[in-house]
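User: Design a sequence. Structure:
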């Protein structure tokens, strides 16, 4: 099963950026993500703890803690409780040559993949995502 934590967390920040200065409720965001308001509140708490989100004036005024151009996908990714893209099954047979070797072999490759993915994430800002959302909205309007 695919993990959508990063996608949902980016969605929350993009929603807050898009509706900047307006009253925003967790229920409205949950409707956009098609999830529960309690999950949205949990995501927002993690984002506040990571220094990516701040409370604006009033309880429903949320704001990015930094400019969208200064928040990278890696920053967002690192706000998540689970930060490994892949997990190696460590419960393999030690008596089988493949079972004994596969965990350390895959660990090595997975660490390389993780580093490459995080390096790419560091080059994508929330502003890049917002620009693409705006472009997508414009294209949709023309149809």
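Assistant: Done.
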């Amino acid at each position: 099963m695919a993990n959508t934590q990063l996608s949902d967390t980016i969605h929350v920040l993009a929603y807050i950026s898009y509706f900047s200065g307006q009253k925003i409720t967790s229920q409205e965001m949950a409707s956009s993500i098609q999830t529960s308001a309690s999950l949205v509140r949990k995501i927002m708490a993690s984002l506040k703890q990571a220094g990516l989100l701040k409370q604006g004036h009033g309880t429903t005024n949320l704001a990015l803690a930094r400019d969208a151009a200064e928040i990278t996908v890696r920053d967002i990714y690192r706000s998540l409780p689970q930060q490994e893209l892949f997990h190696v099954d460590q419960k393999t047979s030690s008596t089988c040559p493949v079972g004994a070797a596969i965990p350390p072999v895959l660990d090595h490759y997975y660490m390389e993949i993780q580093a490459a993915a995080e390096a790419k994430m560091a080059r994508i800002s929330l502003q890049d995502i917002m620009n693409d959302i705006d472009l997508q909205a414009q294209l949709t309007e023309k149809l």
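The radius of gyration is 19 Å. The chain has one domain: 5-142.
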